[in-house]
Each structure stands twice: as structure tokens, then as C-alpha cells.
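Q: Please design a sequence for this.
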């Protein structure tokens, strides 16, 4: 039996996005769309370094993130502070992942939707008001910064509610919660320590990888073997039961490390939440009873089933029933 691994699915599902333009000042003195744009822009246009927690249920992860914008572009470093070494370094469109002693270069366009860059690009932000009721939700103090709260209540039961707190000066997202229909916290991101625009931010890790990486990495052959690439495609697969307001933002064919075949990935967004549909050829022993079923990690739901000889896996930042309905509606209509 062969499945797309959950870690790969989660990484690939957030890997497609668009880099925003420059930020506007004083987001909370502007109309809704303008300050939402500023929140989206701030994660990409602000120099910051800090430690944040990611929590769901009884599980807590601690990470350190550093982000710098200079004359050469945008650079980011994300390090897990728990367990085995896990690190992602971004230099503009070039992304390197380190898992223990293993190094993987991720090809393609990879501006991630990862904290604090949880809001989509400006072209999709106008959809938020159509799919959510947006209101301000008071003020708070987060990691020593004064923050304004914003509440996003869904207009249907097909998506989660979101609550975010942004720095009142820069607009940078400081804390974010996903809430279920009862108001319970499904997952939470929050800075516990943060430096903004400081000269003390470490920049020593910002390097340009040479064309020949053999001399700089003992795992260069493995990195080459495990490289994941994405190319735009039109596969002929369709999804008939997307929640209202979700639009396709990308369709690519992805090579998957340690796999002889590739997978189609179709990416949809409502401006705040994302859904990815992965399609790969099924093995002979794949069937609806063993295709993977439903698994969850915080607000992320993963559901698999076999459709017309293909393994369909839906990854969504939406309630479980929504990803099941999406998977049940996937069909091949031909090119």
C-alpha cells in the first residue's frame, strides 16, 4: 500500500502562495480590507525574530523564526526547538529543509502559509468578507506587544472560525487561534518572545547556495534524489463539492521523493483557509477500506479514498465533514 505521507501533505499544502507587496501604515485606522492587507504584508515586509508555540489538544511544539528583508530579497529561517533537528531556510524562492542530518531542496514557488504568514495574498483577501463576518475583538498584550484582536466568524458550518491578534504598530500577526462551532480552541499559534526591526537579529545564516553543493553538504546525493518539484498542469480532474467561496489558486504535478510516480495537487482557498486535493495512481491493494481514512492534526484534516483507480487525498484547514465531502465529489472528467 502506498500513501502520500502526512508530513509531505502538510508541507505541500501550505507551500503554494503569492508574495505580497509593501505594507501600509496604521492598519486599524483603515477600512477592513486595507488593514487585512497590512496584516498579510507585515509577515513578508517586516524584520523580526522570535520564539512561538504551536498547540493543539495536549500537544505543544516550540519553534524559533527569523525573517529579514534586504536588498537581495526576502529570507526566512524556521527552527524546531523540540526533538530532532527540523529547520527550513528560505532565500526568496529557494527553500532548503533539514530533517536531522538529511537535507532536501524544495523546488518551485514556496512562499508558505505558516505562522505568522497565515493570511493569504492581497488578491484573495476580498473573499474573506464574503465568507466570514469580520469584527474587531478587543485588545491584548502578546509577547510584550500591544495587539488588536480580529474575529472571523464563518457564514456557514463548512469552515472554522478564526481569531487573530496583530501588533498595533507593524500589523505583524502575534497570536492566532482556530475555533470550532462551540468556540473551543482547535489550534493556537502565539509568540512568546519577539524582536521587531532590531539590529541584533542574527543574519549569519543568510547565504546563497552554490550551484554545486557537494562540497558544502555530505548529503548532497540524497538531497538531489529527494528534491520535490512542481510544474503547472491541467489534469482533467474536478472537484464538484467545494464549500462556497473556495476558488482554485493552483494546479500542479508534484514529484515526490522516494516515489516512482508523481501526484497532482489542486489548491483552493477562501482567502483564509486552504484545501489541497492530491491525486496519485493507486496500488493494487489500495481500496476504500484501507486508503487511509480520516486523520487530524489541529485544524488540519487529511482524508483519503480511492476514485477510478487513483488514491485521492484531501488536506484541508476545515472541519472533518468538509474534507470528506470534497473527497467524495472528486471525479475525472477528461482533459
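A: Design:
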Amino acid at each position: 500500500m502506498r500513501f502520500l505521507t502526512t508530513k509531505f501533505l502538510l508541507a505541500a499544502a501550505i507551500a503554494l502562495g503569492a508574495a505580497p507587496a509593501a505594507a501600509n501604515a496604521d492598519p486599524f485606522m483603515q477600512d477592513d480590507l486595507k488593514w487585512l492587507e497590512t496584516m498579510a504584508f507585515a509577515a513578508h515586509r517586516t524584520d523580526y525574530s522570535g520564539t512561538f508555540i504551536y498547540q493543539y489538544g495536549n500537544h505543544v511544539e516550540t519553534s524559533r523564526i527569523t525573517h529579514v528583508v534586504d536588498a537581495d530579497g526576502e529570507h526566512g529561517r524556521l527552527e524546531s526547538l523540540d526533538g530532532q533537528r527540523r529547520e527550513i531556510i528560505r532565500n526568496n524562492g529557494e527553500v532548503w529543509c533539514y530533517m536531522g542530518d538529511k537535507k532536501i531542496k524544495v523546488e518551485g514557488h514556496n512562499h508558505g502559509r505558516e505562522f505568522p504568514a497565515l493570511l493569504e495574498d492581497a488578491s484573495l483577501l476580498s473573499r474573506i468578507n464574503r465568507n466570514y463576518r469580520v469584527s474587531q475583538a478587543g485588545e491584548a498584550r502578546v509577547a510584550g506587544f500591544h495587539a488588536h484582536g480580529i474575529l472571523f466568524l464563518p457564514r456557514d458550518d463548512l469552515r472554522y472560525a478564526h481569531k487573530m491578534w496583530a501588533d498595533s504598530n507593524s500589523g505583524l500577526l502575534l497570536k492566532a487561534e482556530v475555533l470550532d462551532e462551540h468556540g473551543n480552541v482547535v489550534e493556537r499559534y502565539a509568540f512568546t518572545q519577539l524582536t521587531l526591526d532590531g539590529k541584533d537579529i542574527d543574519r549569519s545564516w543568510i547565504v546563497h547556495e552554490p550551484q554545486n553543493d557537494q562540497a558544502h553538504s555530505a548529503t548532497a546525493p540524497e538531497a538531489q534524489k529527494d528534491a520535490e518539484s512542481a510544474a503547472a498542469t491541467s489534469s482533467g480532474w474536478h472537484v464538484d463539492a467545494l464549500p462556497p467561496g473556495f476558488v482554485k489558486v493552483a494546479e500542479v504535478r508534484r514529484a515526490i521523493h522516494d516515489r516512482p510516480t508523481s501526484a497532482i495537487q489542486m489548491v483552493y482557498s477562501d482567502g483564509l483557509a486552504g484545501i489541497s486535493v492530491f491525486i496519485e495512481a493507486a496500488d493494487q491493494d489500495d481500496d476504500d477500506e484501507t486508503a487511509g481514512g480520516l486523520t487530524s492534526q489541529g485544524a488540519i484534516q487529511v482524508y483519503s479514498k480511492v476514485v477510478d483507480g487513483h488514491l485521492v487525498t484531501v488536506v484541508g484547514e476545515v472541519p472533518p465533514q468538509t474534507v470528506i465531502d470534497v473527497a467524495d465529489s472528486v471525479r475525472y472528467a477528461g482533459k
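Q: Thanks. Anything notable?
A: Residues 32-45 form the longest helix (14 residues). Confidence is low (pLDDT under 50) at residues 14-30, 108-112, 210-229.
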